[in-house]
Design goal:
The complex is a heterodimer. Chain A is of the alpha/beta class. In chain A, 49% of the residues lie in helices and 22% in strands. Chain A folds into three domains: 1-32; 38-135; 143-208, no CATH class. In chain A, strand 5 and strand 6 (110-115) form a beta hairpin. Chain A is elongated and about 140 Å long. The relative contact order of chain A is 0.09. Chain B has one domain. Helix content of chain B is 86%, strand content 0%. Chain B contains nine helices and no strands. Chain B has helices at residues 2-51, 58-68, 73-97, 104-142, 145-151, 156-194, 199-208, 212-238, 244-275. In chain B, helix 2 (58-68) packs parallel to helix 6 (156-194). Chain B is globular, with a radius of gyration of 25 Å. The chains are: A alpha/beta, B mainly alpha. Chains A and B meet through helix 1 of A and helix 2, helix 6, helix 7 and helix 8 of B.
């Protein structure tokens, strides 16, 4: 009889522990989905939700404050995203707050990030629509990268053509680098200029001693 | 010459006999299989008829729940702990390569709760409980105790089979929940072998990745696991052949078919879950 009671108690403990663990599990999972706390509901309209799913997190100031409760296609270009957000955060989400779709880390799930609005404005109302900003999608980034790389390819092509012309001695810079006759002419010209400048200096020295110009030069020095 | 001819004729007839035997063996196996399916279906229908018809053997159900459930707890707990620890240690290097070490609690929690803990618990359960039920009922059948119960006016099917199947169906989900919790603790120890993560942070990260669509389908399928293990164990034991050899065969086939049933149910459950988009 005593053994029978002992086995019943042990079985009771097993059942209680398993039920307690199940309830703890349900509580923690439910709490994450805002099931056991007061919430309010807002929605935002996006052109492209980039793979956002019901159950993804809503983040405000880096804190998970809610979850995506529904996603509904309204027209061929607009999608309404419903968000259930913890009531404790309500007062901080202002009328001009904006929602954008972001990503939780490099490989993480999609999330909705709510950007704070102006503090003096009233809080957004329950079931109101929050302003949205279209997210920059990976496809957009790839298109930009492609455009940039195409431009870079054009530039390098032009540079290559110019360098070819230079190496063939075409154009002024090409002649300067590779035409020896042009270089000799240039060298001779520079020698002539140098000689001319020396002669000009001597002439100017002589002129400064001339009585006709002496007065003018003195006045100029005084100034 | 005649001797040679006779030998050839004998060889030919031997080959033909062997072919006939193979063909007959295959047909017999096929017939046995379908007969088995038919008997198992009848057995299941009989269970449902008896299960909802009074009088209910509550005391025996509680006793069997203790034997089947409570006495399997240490084995399930140790297995759950080791599985959580091992999965964590094995997964860590791959996640470290991606710089995603912080995902370890979430990843282990999802894999343990969705799949590994329920299936491993059910397999352990099939090994321990299925063979136990099969051997117990088979030895009762062999020693004609079941016949004696019928003679003394006790419904042996209700008393022996219904109680055991119900006890297995009820206790396996409980053991699975406990295995889930213990495997997460094992995972926590595994994470802390190389890192320093607090228990609170570990469980926050683990539950962050979990949703009801991870918990409930896995919990729901353990009822079917428990039912199939109990049903197959009882069927094999209740319908065992006479002799001590029959007891061994009943115990062995209870484990084999019980484990196979677990995998088949798991496959069906995964398909249904994915169809429901969980």
């Amino acid at each position: 009889m005593q053994k029978n009671t002992g086995s019943k108690i042990k079985l009771g403990i097993l059942v209680s522990v398993s039920f307690a663990l199940l309830l703890i599990g349900i509580y923690f999972i439910g709490e994450k989905q805002q099931m056991f706390s007061a919430t309010f509901h807002v929605s935002g309209v996006f052109k492209d939700i980039s793979g956002l799913q019901v159950g993804n997190n809503v983040r405000f100031s880096g804190i998970n404050v809610g979850v995506i409760s529904e996603i509904e296609q309204i027209t061929d270009t607009t999608v309404r995203v419903g968000m259930t957000i913890n009531e404790k955060t309500h007062k901080f989400i202002k009328k001009n707050s904006k929602a954008i779709i972001g990503s939780d880390g490099l490989m993480g799930n999609k999330i909705v990030i709510i950007l704070p609005g102006i503090a003096s404005l009233p809080a957004i109302a329950n079931n109101d629509t929050i302003a949205t900003t279209q997210p920059v999608s990976m496809d957009d980034i790839l298109i930009k990268i492609k455009q940039t790389s195409d431009n870079a390819a054009d530039i390098t092509g032009s540079l290559s053509m110019i360098m070819d012309n230079i190496s063939e001695g075409k154009g002024t810079i090409g002649k300067l680098f590779f035409d020896s006759a042009f270089a000799q002419n240039l060298d001779a010209t520079l020698v002539n200029i140098k000689q001319g400048a020396g002669g000009f200096k001597q002439n100017m020295d002589a002129a400064s001693h001339n009585f006709l110009l002496r007065g003018f030069l003195k006045r100029k020095n005084k100034k | 010459m005649l001797e040679y001819y006779n030998t050839k004729q004998m060889e030919k007839s031997a080959i033909l006999e062997q072919n006939d035997a193979t063909e007959n063996g295959f047909i017999k196996t096929l017939t046995d299989f379908f007969e088995g399916v038919s008997l198992l279906t009848k057995f299941t229908i009989r269970f449902f008829r008896q299960a909802f018809k009074p009088p209910f053997e509550f005391k025996e159900i509680i006793k069997q729940s203790y034997i089947i459930g409570y006495q399997s707890f240490p084995l399930v707990a140790i297995t759950g702990f080791i599985m959580g620890l091992v999965i964590t240690i094995q997964s860590r290097p791959t996640l470290v390569q991606f710089g995603a070490e912080s995902w370890l609690p979430g990843m282990v929690a999802v894999s343990m709760i969705r799949e590994i803990a329920p299936v491993i618990t059910a397999l352990i359960f099939a090994g321990k409980v299925g063979s136990g039920i099969g051997a117990e009922l088979a030895s009762m059948k062999v020693t004609e105790q079941i016949d004696a119960m019928e003679v003394s006016g006790i419904n042996p099917f209700k008393y022996l089979v219904v109680t055991r199947i119900l006890a297995a169906t009820i206790t396996l989900p409980m053991l699975s929940i406990i295995a889930d919790a213990i495997s997460l603790y094992g995972s926590y120890i595994g994470v802390n072998l190389k890192n320093d993560v607090s228990l609170r942070l570990f469980f926050l990260q683990a539950f962050q990745s979990l949703s009801f669509s991870d918990l409930f389908p896995s919990l729901f399928k353990t009822f079917f696991f428990g039912f199939s293990v109990g049903l197959i164990g009882c069927y094999k034991g209740y319908n065992c052949k006479k002799g001590t050899e029959g007891v061994g065969i009943a115990a062995n086939s209870s484990v084999v078919f019980g484990s196979l049933a677990i995998f088949i149910i798991d496959m069906i459950a995964v398909q249904i879950t994915s169809l429901l988009n969980c």
